[in-house]
Amino acid sequence: MTIEPLVGEARERLLVRAKREGLVTVGYDVMDSPLGPLWIAVGPRGVLAIHYGAKPDPRDLARISRTYGPGVLPDRRRCDRVLTELDQYFARRRRTFDLEVDLTPLTAFQRRVLTATALVPYGELTTYHEVAKRAGNEQASRAAGGAIGSNPIPIVVPCHRVVASDGSLGGYAGGLAAKRRLLALELGDAQVPRGGWPPARLER
Amino acid sequence: MSGPVTFGELLECFEREIFAYVLRLSGSRDDADDLYQETFLAAFRSWPPPRAGNERAWLYRIATNKAIDRVRQSRRVVPLRDLRLAAPERDGVTLADLRTAVRALPTGQRAAFVLRKVEGRSYAEVADVLGCSEDAARSRVAEAMKKMREAVR
C-alpha cells in the first residue's frame, strides 16, 4: 500500500480548512486534453491561465502571485466549469466560451490586444496586423504579436485564430501542431496546410 | 536557488515526504492526517518561508513541533494496521516490537531517530529541524538507538 491516497484525502481536507481561513485566492487543476495536459488557474475574477503542460509556467505563477498573493492551491471544483467548457469545445459541441477571463495582471496594451483577439469568431482567421489595428495601433503589429505570443489564456482567448499576413501560421505557445489541430477542429475537416495558407485565404 | 512563490508549489513539492514523516512520527493515520494539515496551514499562515531554498527544513521543523505539541496534549493508542505503513522493515524484528519501541521513545528522540535512521537525513539537517546543535542531535539519535536495541533484543 502506498501513502498516495492518504495524501490525497489529507489534501482535500487541507484545502477546505485553508479556504475557511481565507488563505486560498486562486485554484488550479490539470486537464487531460486532446492536445495534452493543460494547467488551468481560476481566480476571484475569472480564468487567469491556461498553460500547455502539466506544470505551471513560472511566469504565470509570478504574475498571478503578484496580483493575488501566494494563496494558489490545487482546487478541482473551482476549475470545473472551465474544464467542462473546454471538453465541449474539443468535442465540437461549443463554439463560444461563457467564461470570465481575468486580464488584470497584464499591461493596458496587452489587454487591448487580447480583447481584440477574443472577438475573432470561431472558425475565422485574422492577422497580427489586423489585431494591432483593432487594438488601436495599426503600426504595432510586432508588439501585438508579442502580446498574443504571451497570451496567458490560449484557446479561450483564441490566439490560434491569428496568423501572419503572408498566410503562414506564425507562432503558438502550445506549438504549431496544436495551432493546426485547433484550426482544423474549428474549420471542420478541412486540412490546414503544414505551413499555413496562401495570403488569398485570409481575404474576407 | 529561488523558492516557491505559491502555496501550491510548496505543497506539491513536499506534501508526500511530510505526510510520510508525520506518519512515522505519530504511527497513526488519523494523527498523520491532522499533522499534515496543521503543518501546511501553519506554513501558509506564516508565509513566506524564512529562507529561500530551505523550505524542507522549515516544514520538518513545523511538523516536528506540531507532533511534540500533540504528544504533550494526549497520548494515544496506535492502531496496529497503521504501523504497517509507519514502521520501517527490519529483519528478525516484528512490527509489533518496533511499534512498542518507537512509541516508548520520548518525542524529541523519536523525531531524531526517524529523521536520521528512517529518512536518512544528515545530522546537520536533524539539528536544523529540531533546533539543537549537531552534537545534541547525535546524542539524541544515539540514545534512541540504544533504547531501540534494548527494546527489540
Characteristics:
heterodimer; A: 204 residues; alpha/beta; four-stranded mixed beta sheet; two-stranded parallel sheet; 7 helices; 40% helix; 15% strand; globular; B: 153 residues; mainly alpha; 8 helices
Task: Explain what you see.
Chain A has 204 residues and is an alpha/beta fold. Chain A contains 7 helices and 6 strands. Chain A has helices spanning 4-20, 58-68, 76-90, 108-118, 128-134, 141-149, 176-186, and strands at residues 26-33, 36-43, 46-52, 72-74, 126-127, 162-163. Chain A has a 4-stranded mixed sheet. In chain A, a hairpin with a 2-residue loop joins strand 1 and strand 2. In chain A, helix 5 crosses helix 6 (141-149). Chain A is globular, with a radius of gyration of 18 Å. By secondary structure, chain B is an all-alpha fold. Chain B is 73% helix and 0% strand. In chain B, helix 3 packs across helix 7. The longest helix of chain B is centred in the N-terminal third of the chain and has 20 residues, at 7-26. Chain B is globular and about 50 Å long. Classes of the chains: A alpha/beta (204), B mainly alpha (153). Chains A and B meet through helix 1, helix 2 and strand 4 of A and helix 1 and helix 2 of B.
Short description:
The complex is a heterodimer of chains A (204) and B (153). By secondary structure, chain A is of the alpha/beta class.
What is the terminal-to-terminal distance of chain A?
61 Å
- Main pleated sheet of chain A: 4 strands, mixed
Q: State the helix count of chain A.
A: 7
Shape call of chain B? globular
Please give the radius of gyration of chain A in angstroms.
18 Å
Helices of chain B, by number, come to 8
Question: Assembly state here?
Answer: heterodimer
